[in-house]
Amino acid sequence: MSQSYASPSSVDRGEEWNTWRAGRRRALTAPTGNLALTETRWLPAGEEPDLDAARAGQPDTVTVTTLRRTDLVTGAPEHGLRFWDAAAPAVRHFEDVEVFPYDPSWVLEATYTPVADARRIAFEHIRDNGGTRDLVVPGDIALTVDGRDYTLSAFDDGGTLLLVFGDPTNGDTTYGAGRFLFVRRTDDESRVVLDFNRAFVPPCGFSDQYNCPMPPRQNRFHLPVEAGEKRPVFRDGFDPQH
C-alpha cells in the first residue's frame, strides 16, 4: 500500500471519522435524504416541470424538486421531478449502515495531475441498460496500492472530486455496484488524500430511484478495500431495491 497521509497530531482522525458517520446518518434520514426518494419522474420531451401541480394533493411529508439530464440518444435536455417522503418505508425501516473498523492505513496520499481542457470520460450508469454518460474528469489521480500502480478517474461533482471505485468486496461484504469517495485536496495542488474510511454506499443503495455511475475499469482495485461503509441495514427484511 502506498504511503499513508500524516495529518496534524492534534487531530484525532478516529474522532473525525465518528463525527463523519453521525453526519452521514443525519443526511441519509433527512426529509430529502437518500432514503426519502420515492419517485423519479421523467417528463415527455420538451415538457417543463410544474412544481405547483406536482405538489398538489401530496401529504405534508412529501417534498418535490426538479432535476435535469441529457438524453442519451438525442443529446437534448430532459426534465424531471423527484418526490421525497420523510415518512417513506425506507426511512421507517432503516437501521444503520454497516462499516469496517477505522483503519488509518487506508488514508492514502496520491499525486494529482490536472488535465488541460478537462476531458470527459464515459461512465456506465446503473439504470441505463449498458448506456454511458460522459462526465468531466479534470485530472488524473496516481497512487500505488499493495505494489500495484493505479491511475484513477474522479469526476467533478459540483466542484468536488468524486471517485467511483470497485474492489473484490463488492457483492460480498460491501454494496454490489461499488462505492463512492470524495477526494480531499491539500495545500499542494499536486497532492490529494484518499481516506477510504469515508468510502460510502452510493445513493442507489438506499433507493432504486437513483441512477448511479458505476466504477470504470481503471477504478477497480485488485485487493479488498476493507475500509468505509459496507451496506445499509433495514429492519423486518425491507429491501430498498424492490
Automatic annotation (TrEMBL):
This is DUF1684 domain-containing protein. Pfam families: DUF1684. PANTHER family: DUF1684 DOMAIN-CONTAINING PROTEIN. It comes from Streptomyces hintoniae.
